[in-house]
Structure formats: C-alpha cells, structure tokens
Specification:
- The complex is a heterodimer of chains A (about 260) and B (about 600).
- Chain A is of the alpha/beta class.
- Chain A is built from nine helices and ten strands.
- Chain A has helices at about 45-55, 75-80, 100-110, 115-125, 140-155, 170-185, 200-205, 225-230, 235-255; strands at about 5-20, 20-30, 35-40, 60-65, 70, 85, 160-165, 190-195, 210-215, 215-220.
- The longest helix of chain A is centred in the last third of the chain and has 20 residues, at about 235-255.
- Chain B is about 80% helix and about 0% strand.
- The longest helix of chain B has about 40 residues, at about 285-325.
- Chain B has two domains: about 35-325, no CATH class; about 350-600, no CATH class.
- Chain B has 23 helices and no strands.
- The interface of A and B includes residues 77, 82, 85, 87 and 138 of A.
Amino acid sequence: MTANGQVMIELDHISKSYGRKVAVNDISLAVHEGELFTFLGPNGAGKTTTIKMICGLLLPSAGSIRLGGYDVRTEGDLARQIISYVPDQPFLYEKLSGREFMEFIVDMYGMDRRLGKTRMEELIEVFDLGDFVDDLSESYSHGMRQRTVFAAALLHQPRVLIVDEPMVGLDPKNQRLVKDLLRKQVAQGVTVFMSIHTLDIAQELATRIAIIDKGRIVGMGTLDHLRKQASLEGPLEDVFLKLTADEAEAPSSEVNGQP
Amino acid sequence: MSDDAAPAPRSTRASFLRLQRRLAWNGLRSLMRKQRLRFGLIVHLGLFIWIGLLALFIEGFTFLRGLDNNGPISNDITALLFGMFFLSVTMLTIFSSSLLLYGSLFHHPEAWFLLATPARADRVFNYKFRDTLFYAGWPFLLLGTPLLLAYGIVMEASWFFFLMFPFYLLGYLLLPSAIGACLCLLVVTYMARHRKLVLGLLIVLFLLMLLVWIGSAAQGVRSDVLTEMSERWARKVIDHLQPTRSTPPGAWMTEGLLACSQVKGHPLEWWQTWRQTGLLPENFELEAIRDGFYYLLAVWSYGLVGFWLATWLARRLYRRAFDQLAGSGGRRKKMSTSWSDRLVSLLLRYRDQATRTFVLKDWRSFRRDPVQWGQVLLLGSIILLYLLNIQNLPHSQYPLNQRSLIGLMNVGVIGLMMATFTSRFVFPLMSLEGRNFWILGLLPIKRDKLITNKFTYAATFTSTLSLGFVLLSSTQLKLPWSIIFMHLAAILILSLGLSALSVGLGAYLVNVKETNPSKIATGFGGTMNLLISLGFALVIITLAGLPSLVFFADSAMSLSENFQVNIVWYWQMGCLGVMLVMGMLVILIPLRMGIRAFRNMEF
C-alpha cells in the first residue's frame, strides 16, 4: 500500500532521558494517513517509551511531536481526541461490564449518544462480544479483554490508532481477527502505529517498518529498503538481526577506538 | 472516518460522575452477591463499633459534665477534646490523602488509561480527589458522628446543633485533603527523585514535634498526676493543650460547633413571638447563630479555596509530574544479604538448611515490599509506644488485682492484634505463591515440608515479637512470676496456634488467581480465618485470666490463705492444661487440612 496523504504522526528530533539513561535518542519520523507503520526493536530499545510520548503520557526531553497537526505538548487534549491507544496490558474497570465501559468511552470522547449506541452495536458484532459484553469485566479472559479494548478504541473512529504489542496472549483466531481489523482500518484511511515483536506479522501487515535499538532508529522504510540497507536478501527476521547486531557492535568499536 | 477537524472536547465531569456512580453501585451489588459474609461482617461490625463509640462518648461527656456541672472546666475540656480530635484528623487526612492520591494519580493503571484519553488533567484529578475524600473521610465520619451526637445528647444541645453538625463534618475534610493533594503534586513535580526522602523527613519532623509537645505536656503535669484530680491540675493540662484548640481549621470546627450548641429556643417559638410583638424573644441567641454560620462558612470556603488551588495546580502540573515520576527510576539497586537476613538465619538455626533457605525467600519478599512492612511497622510502633508508656503510670500504687488485670488486657491486645496480623500477612502467603506453584511442586522436597516451613517462618516471628512484648509489659507492671508465666504460656500458645491457623487455612482455602495480598486477606478465606483466629484468641485470653480472677474473687471472700493457694494452683494447672490441649488441636488440625489440600493440588 502506498500512503501519500497528510502527515498524521510527526516526530521531530525527539529524545527521552530517564536520569542519566537515554531511552530515546534523537528520533525523527513521519507517518502518513492510511499507513500501517510498524515499530520493531529488541526489549528495552525504546519502543514503548516512544509510543507513550506519542500519546502524551510522557513528555519528550527534547524535540516535538505532532499528531494530525496538533502539538502534543501544547494541544495535547485536542491531539488525544483524534487518537486511540491500545496498550500491551489493556485496562478495563473490573466493576464495569464491557458495554458500560464502551458507554464511558462514548461520553469521554463527546460522541452523540445515538451514534455511539449504533457504533457500539456494530463493534459488539464485529468483535463477537455479544456473549459476555454485559458481564463484569473482572470475569473476562485476556482475549476477551483485548477484544473489548479494541472495540472501545474504535468507537470514536480515531484517525490514528496506536497499538503496543497487540498479539500478546491471543489465540490464532483472535490474532486473525486483529490482523483483519488493522487491515480494514488502514483501508479506511486510518493511520496505524504498531509496536510488535512478531516479525512475521510485521512483514505481513506493515506499509513501512522502523527498527529501533538502544533508543536510535537503525533502519526505516519498506521491507525492500531495509533489505538493501542490511545488504541481504531474506526474511525480515534476518534483516532485523543484522541491523540490530550492527548497532550493538558500533558502540563497542568506538569504545575500543576502532571506527 | 471522521471529519478532518477534530471534534471539540466535551466536558467530562458528568462522565466521571456517572463512572463513579456505576463503579460504586456495581461494586456494592457484586459484594452483596459474591461476598455476602464479608458484606454482613462489614455492616454489623461497623454498626457495633459506631454504637460502642457512641456509648463510650456518652459516658465520657456525662463524666465531664459532672465535674463542675457544665461549668468552665468541663466546657474547656470539651473544647480541648474537640480541638485535639480535629487537629489529629487534619494531620492524618493530609498524610493519608497525599499518599492515596500518589497511588491513584501516578501508580494505578487507570491513570495511564485516563491520561491517554482527551480528558483534561484537572478533570482526572478531580475524579480521583473525590475517591480520596471518600476513603479518607469514612473513618472520620465513623468517629466524628458518635462524638458529636454524644456531645449533643449529654449537653442537651438545641436542634440547631443537630442540624448544623453534619454540614460541618462534610465540609471539614476538604481543606486537609486539598493540602495533601497540593503537597503530593508539588513533591512529585519538583522532587520526584527524592520523594521518599521528603516523605520520610516529613514523618520524622511530625513525630519529633509530637514527641516534644507530649514531652513538655507530660513534664508539666506528671508531678501532679498522683494527687487527686484538682482544679489546679486540670487547669495545667488545659493550658498545655491550649494550642490544639486554637489551630485552624480545627479551631473553626470547635468554635462553630460549641456556638451551635449554645442556641436555645425553637424557630416556631421565635416566629410566634416576632409576629405578636414584632421583636425576637429574649432567649434568641443571635450571636451564637451568627457564629455557627460564620465558622461553617469559614470551614467550607477555605476548603473550597483549597480544592480550587489543588485543581489549578493539577491542571498545570499533573501531566508534568506524571512524566517526572516515570523518568525518575533512580539508580539500579544491587540486592545483597542484609543484617536482617543473617538474623533470620540465626533465629532458625534449629531447622535444617533447606527450611532456612525457604524461610529466607519469604522474608526477602516481605522486607522488599514497603507496603507490607510499613503496616507491620505501624502496628508494632503502636504496641511499643503503649508498652513503653506503661512506666509513666503510677503502677506501684495500684493493688495487685488491678495490675494483673492490666497485664491480662495487654496480653489480650497483643493477642488480638496478632490475630489480625497473621490473617493479614500470613494467611495470603500460600496464595501469593500462586503462579509459582509449579516451582514449589517440582522442588525436590516433600510438599508437606513447604507448609511446615511457612509455619516455622510465621511462628518464629510472631512468638519472638509477642513474647518480647508480653515480658516487657509484665515486668513493667511488676507482676509476680506465677502470673507472668501464665501470660507467657498464653501468648506462646496463641502465636503458634494463630500461625498454624493462618498457614493451614491459607493452604486449604488457597486463592491462586489473586496477586494482591490485601484482597486475599479480605476475601472469603481471609475473613473466615480472621473470625476463627479472633475466637481462638478470646478463648485463650479468658483461660489465661481465669486463675487470677479466681484468686482475687477468693481473696475478696476472705477465705483461708491455705485454701486460696490450693484452689488457685488447681485452677492455674487446669487452665494451662486446657490451653495446651486447645493449642495442640488448633496447631494440628489446620496444618493437617492444609497439608492434605496441598498434597492433592494439581500444578
């Protein structure tokens, strides 16, 4: 898929430090409307920190982030109105049913109640929530929780969908459901920013891929572009390992004085 | 797909109110449906405590009123009592609300969820602030309503007092909670890295101030304590405690409530007099009514200004503070063997290496969880403070029967606290292994041993602490060794029995799904364990006290000395025998039940 529309996510030289530790180091990227942008990286590379900065949960130590043209630091409430964030550990109120949770989301995003109700019914059907949507969510399994959170995230028809590790703990059927959903959203022009560890799924779905390691982007582009950068033909897994291994070697050579 | 222009964010205040209402209602329904026993216990124990407090306060105010027939001394003491009560509530509410808000605004997963929505930071803060008011407020209402009701009843206060005091109580918590909220936001924003140090310093400062104040007050009055209650002595106490009465916002409460209680007459009577004569009746206390409203307005207006200030701060600082805290991870701490680990190993030298290692694992998990040891420290400090304070009382002048009774009550207090302690901390131990059961199940040691190891761990700690406390209190009271022996035997049997109950029932009624120890302790199993533990503690305490009771009853009937010694000895041996049998049963039966359940458990 090609995506030449409006820039929906723009990261301009952002960095984030936790004390002395630099978690994200001078990252710049732009994701366009209708793109499924995948963010890959080893554990602790800075993926989740970047995602949290995009959502406005954390503030960059340097640089700026714009979502749909809104500056996240100064117009955060407006920026968050056009996004939905699905974290790796989905949050639901234990003492609310799935339906009540979705009603809360309808209220929070200022949606028209009637429109909200219609959207809820559609999404309950799409995600097959009918059997349990009126039970308290304390009784839900991980898959049920993830499906409910996805349904709630799509209620207000976000222009940007940010998902962090959406496949963790899902069975093949639910994984398929999420993949189809992401494809459908992209086809409708939604921008999807996804962090994931499963390289096969990234290869299958992504319009563009960014590989982050030790807080820096070590490769970004289509799969073909990344293959060229890594100077090897093969699956994404090989490209990923090559690029992150190169990055791991780089600092040690500098330390040893070997450029 | 939505339009290009972002929809304007609508007010979320109503959404949060609806959310809170739904959460409360669903929570209550769920509690009534799934945890009927716990719900019933909460309601009945709450009512029991409330009625007990009301009776106690009525008795206290009746005594005060009788001092000088509602004269200046009783009025001053009442004002001081109110002042001290409201000052304590203020300090406790500032601390508790700042800690509660710290947890809910910065550490709860809900905060991450809400801050990723378009909800304004101050709206999220307001929503959590309302929760905090509720949690910080209910103990205040539980204590405050019987106190003021008892005062009104005994002092025959007018309708105006009963009408006004609920509004005073409701408004009072706003200001200290708002101060706590501001402190929390400021500390996290500007001192995120040193927040624990700041909190520690504040607590130390508060305790030092309290100690200096108590010390000076005690120094001033101790010389007169042994004399009869004289006006001079009472005046001295009142003078030393005067600052508690004049410190706002408690002072506004005290002055306002006392003014309300002064209002005489009835509005219908005032109305009729005014219609007939065009004048207000002579007993119309305009000044008291004016003061009642004036101080109520002061309480509410300062509270609302505090709330507004906290909201203003939250709007500007909450997201920044959230970011600061997330980025203040601090240096990685290397874990190593501490002096306490060595002490634990030393205490358990009588057991084999595997047991010591197993117990050490539990100890390390416990000491690295500040929530757990913080509660133990609090409970322990209260007991220790009380025991150390015993020496300030003139026990040498008390007869032996009174000292013996005080000693027994000390055993009772420690026993009952131990019952709550083991239910809170020991009962969840087996459930907390939850997801690690496969490790325990595959260990090359007998499963039975896992239970007995937990029992060793719990029994060693509870018996060491409780024996120390009882020995300290009994020697301070200068009790004869025969009574000290009974008390020590009782507390040892209690420590072992309560530990066995909590470990055995903890394994029998295991809840592997729950990871929060508080929730395990307050669930069905935890509640059952608490009830049985309390019952066992009461029986043992009664048995420990029976020989002394017989001795003093016997003395009172002036029977022969020889007869007294014999009968008391028989009673002592009899009670000790029953305690031992009960102790053995309470140790063996639950441990056996737990071991059986654990043997049959599938991993």
